[in-house]
Write a structure and sequence with these properties.
CATH class of the largest domain in chain B: Mainly Alpha
Strand content of chain A: 5-15%
Strand order of the largest sheet of chain A: 2-3-7-6
CATH topology of the largest domain in chain B: Butyryl-CoA Dehydrogenase, subunit A, domain 3
Number of strands of chain B: 10
Mean pLDDT of chain B: 95
Oligomer: heterodimer
Shape of chain A: globular
Number of domains of chain B: 3
Number of domains of chain A: 3
Strand content of chain B: 5-15%
CATH superfamily of the largest domain in chain A: Butyryl-CoA Dehydrogenase, subunit A, domain 2
Largest interface: A-B, 55 and 51 residues
Number of helices of chain B: 11
Chain lengths: ~425, ~375
Amino acid sequence: MDFNDTPKQAEFRAKCRDWLDANANIKDDSKPKSISSAAENDLETIIKRAKDWQKKKYEAGWAMLHWPEEYGGINASPIERIIWTQEQAKFDVPGSIFEIGLGMCGPVLMEYATEEQKKRYLPPMAEGKEIWCQLFSEPSAGSDVAGLRSKAEKDGDDWIINGQKVWTSGAHYSDYGILVVRHDASLQKHKGLTFFFVDMKSPGITVKPIKQITGTAGSGAGFNEVYFDNVRIPDSQRLGEIGDGWKVAITTLMNERLAVGDARGTDIEEALNLAKEKDDDGDALIKNQAVRDRLADWFCQASGLKYTKFRTMSALSKGEAPGPEASITKVVSAGKLQEIGNFGIDAGDMAGMLLDEDNWDPFQSAWLGAPGLRIAGGTDEILKNIIAERVLGLPQDPRADKGVPFNEIPQGK
Amino acid sequence: MNLDFSDDQKFLQAEARKFFDKEGGLLLARKVMDNDAEGDQELWKKIVDLGWTGIRIPEEHGGLGLGHLELCVIAEEIGRSLAPIPFSSSVYLFTEAVINFANDDIKAEILPKLVTGECVGTFAIAEDTKKITPNNITCVVDGDKISGSKIAVPDVGFATHAIVLVKKEKNLELRLVDLADSNVEKKLQKNIDKSRSFYQLNFNGCDSQKIHSDEDAWDLSEHLLDQAAVMFAFEQVGGAEQSLDMAKNYALERYAFGRQIGSYQAIKHKLADMYISLTLARSNCYYGAWALSSDSPELKLAAATSRVSATKAFQLCAKENIQTHGGNGFTWEYDCHLFYKRSKVLSVNIGSELSWKEKLVSAMEKMNTLENK
């Protein structure tokens, strides 16, 4: 047992490090981390910084390590991707607005698009020239995303799309999106879906940023509603067969789970430092037994996640398939983030509720952002169903929508 | 990055698992409980024959000269099978104390006998209901004669020797006692888990031998417990995984309201929570195993993290296994209570979750940075 790289991995790490040293600044750990950089910059600056950084990486071959060379990658192994991510995390680089494109849309195109389409769309995606978003969730189809109702009707060589999508991260600055819609409501739920990609500048698309509980809208990677009003999509932009939409969507969702990973923000280290610094009637807050109890619990969670990741890496490093252990990551980290944020506010006692919107307190921003993280990319409840069904092998719930034409499934308002 | 056991270690673990299954699995613990025995002597003899008591003992003393990682994988299987043997007291505590601290004469005398089973050891530290601290130790040594009492000393029915934490004037010492000494009085103490046995030992001026040189015995004892905590944590992870497995199997075979109970989200989420807790504990145990096997200065932090995490996981899995079994889980006939009881005894036997949480936070306070990315 050791945490060392193999000689080949060490060589790769050094290569990553050399390039990063020459092209970015190392992070200053003395500054507290915050999950919301929304107040810092306006949207245009954020996008420009992110695009510049992505382009720089693309030109040097660091943008999409694991992709094949013809689409802008270097065929890197999973462990090399992790090494790059670890090294990049030590540097102060712009947050990525390309994660959804590169993590979810790219793999779908790779699997289902024509060669010509791949050559046209993948390199600009990797370069950060074109930004992609994912149009799945709808007002009445969240966890049950296959219950979506947006319609596609065939008209000659085109499809006409009508309906509404929601929770579309980055739709307001995206150039393209992947879209799943219902082409036939008289078929069973999962069989009536078809998958497309769409130009977000198409006539009939309206994007409306959602004002979130943080009070912000249209900033950073914020969420949107996207309306489709007689939007035309050529049949050539269909991915997979007519009626295969669910199968294609599942490919994306599997990749989403890998892309979402853990909830970042204030963690045990910030909580520990705060507890050491805060005065509690003449003593440090860390001397408070209730605080010590919680610090111990959070440390066990943080450490458990860290070494779970290391176990996954160990398997990848040996060229083996990792076990299902990484399935716990998001559900544990998002809950921990919410609790630590809550603790940070409590530590301020009555002053804890006071807000400085120009300079967000990282604990407050963790606490406000965490409810979203417990929902996005699979709610806590859905993730626990996945663990129960896929890891432990328990049966699915009996369903009222099985074997029934979609338009006969009971539905709410 | 290689946070995993080697193929040889995994092979040893698979062999250990087969061995306990073949010997009777949970029936072994049941037999001990039903017969009011103090452990399974026959099973213990077979384990000695397999060489497991000498895993960490150097070859010059007849042992296998292997590392702690081999003990960790066996510990997990002992936890899974609830094997009623004095492995933890004799191997994780007594043998380690002799290997770590004893002078060459004691090593040459004792270690070969631990390999052959002629000698079995235990560790006597707790005294009464008070937490174990340097101030609370009242057993005293005068010359080489010990007076005082220890409680909850494990496996005295098997043990030929004990290492005892005693006070000499203001200092603490670890002393070796031959339990055949007529000035040692042994009283069996009933405990929650009848598949394990614990004793009160009254020392009425019995002979003893100091095992270490001038170091402070409190630090030595703490180090010993840190090491043992990792191995106990592996036992706890083994027990937790078996409890989850039982709950899962029952949730698949039991029907209520015309469905498998495992199809209800209330049960699914309960089992998912057990899996999450177990996975965190297992990963923390690997961290502990790494710190233990590499003699890392992080051992204090890693041991406490493994211990707290594994204690939580086993207790959660054991109690929710009963809950998943409904009324059946509350019967003597079903095996759920064996795990429930073992989980409790393992959660306090080298200090409770509360005291290990305190050790964990103290260790955190002393670290310069906590890297958790």
